[in-house]
Amino acid sequence: MAKKNGKAKGKNGEEKKPRTEWVYGVTPGLVESLSIHIDAVTGAYSIPELDPSSMYNQVSHERDSGKDKIITQFPLGTGEFYLDNMWQQLTSSFDYLMAVDTNYYSSPEFREKNRGYAIGVCSSFIIRERLADLNGVSFEVKQHKTYLIATTQNESLFEPAGWHLALSALNPAVLKGSRLGVIVDHGLGDLPLMNKREMSYFKDFILPEYAQFIYASADKSESVINKIFQHCDKAGKAILDHFKASGFALPATQKVIDIDGLIVSELL
User: Fold this and answer.
1) Out of the domains of life, which is the source (predicted)?
2) How far is it, in rounded angstroms, from Cα 209 to Cα 196?
3) Rounded to an integer, what distance in angstroms lies between the CA atom of residue 195 and that of residue 247?
4) Does residue 178 sit in the same domain as residue 212?
5) Which end of the chain has less Cβ packing within 10 Å, N or C?
């Protein structure tokens, strides 16, 4: 099921491509028909024949190549869904939101000057209030954790290592029974399997039961998901720029963690 939005102007005044919001789902078996129900009070849609655990929301637009550019994608976790009301859908699917992003730098010149190390800065921010208690317009995104990550190995583990660090710094007892949406911009094709706990997200670690990954394109800012992620991305880039200019050095006063070849130091 989909709803298409008309064209609008982008940040540089160019015409934006029309966005389409999709809701996907599969039935447990073969069916002869689908029925769409609409709650007259809440405006929520439902299709009883679909498996709620298979349903997810996706906003996209068509690229010039004809392929879809995915802007956001996340599991619904419920059989009810909303179209053209992102905040209502988020409050229906999640209790809290957190964004995690790791910007990294690994040029040969930098590695040569810094004993072979590539570096990354993992920045994470969180909305600590329950989404249902907020209005979607005015809310505070607070800093969660910031880490410096360094490795002499391949930089492919920077992003998943950042996820693991941010998730490990949460209090599972507080989040037990809650639904945390973790906004990321990496691994789109694997996120559904990670959300189903059929694939590890880092090393042998499986996503905690209270968490689900949300994909957000880092170069878009039209939805609350993208805006929260960009806040996180901007903060991490500012710190990374400092290390790119000054070089890599572990803070002497901070606890240093060694995770299978990744050297980690908490910055903030």
Assistant:
1) Bacteria
2) 9
3) 37
4) yes
5) C
